[in-house]
Amino acid sequence: MTDTITSLEALTPSDLDAGTVFSGTPSGKIVRGFATAMAFTPVVDTKYIFHEHSRDLVVWFIGAFDPLYVFGPCGCGKTSCIKQLAAKLNYPVFEVTGHSRLEFPELIGHHVVRNGNMEFEYGPLTLAISLGDFFSAMKLTCWSLPPLLV
Length: 150
Ligand SMILES: Nc1ncnc2c1ncn2[C@@H]1O[C@H](COP(=O)(O)OP(=O)(O)OP(=O)(O)O)[C@@H](O)[C@H]1O
Ligand SMILES: [Mg+2]
What we know:
The chain has 150 residues and is an alpha+beta fold. It has one domain (2-145). The chain has helices at residues 2-10, 18-22, 54-62, 78-89, 104-108, 124-129; strands at 13-17, 30-34, 93-98, 109-114, 117-122, 137-142. It has a two-stranded antiparallel ribbon. It is globular, with a radius of gyration of 17 Å.
């Protein structure tokens, strides 16, 4: 876990040309990314097709970092779109699979015993927020929602 924090802290922000990154043709539009990938950066899928709808997400990446909620029918490509954009820009992605008994510590972290000592292990939400000004995507798949949330 210390390695993860160290790797996150070592990420170097980088201004990339959106056109070069996504289509191979320079556009002059700067999009913020990181100079290198790390363990949580998705792998580029060479077969992935950036369709027309990905443009909206690229614009969001270029603009202010307001929270983004992506929704759509099962299997329509929400996760892969986010992950492939992140892969191109070297953003780490932290994934959480939602379930009806999901508890807050699973998101923020909890204490674990390691080598006879208690250590706090950061959860995906805490790790994502630790990137400060920068964004990292956290996928929360909500299946089997408890009745109160439906
Ligand atoms: N633009 C694309 N190019 C190539 N493959 C794609 C594309 N969009 C989606 N796929 C493929 O379709 C499948 C479903 O995509 P994905 O898992 O991203 O959907 P989802 O909307 O996140 O699904 P769920 O609602 O189940 O979470 C995956 O195998 C993914 O690789
Ligand atoms: Mg998904």
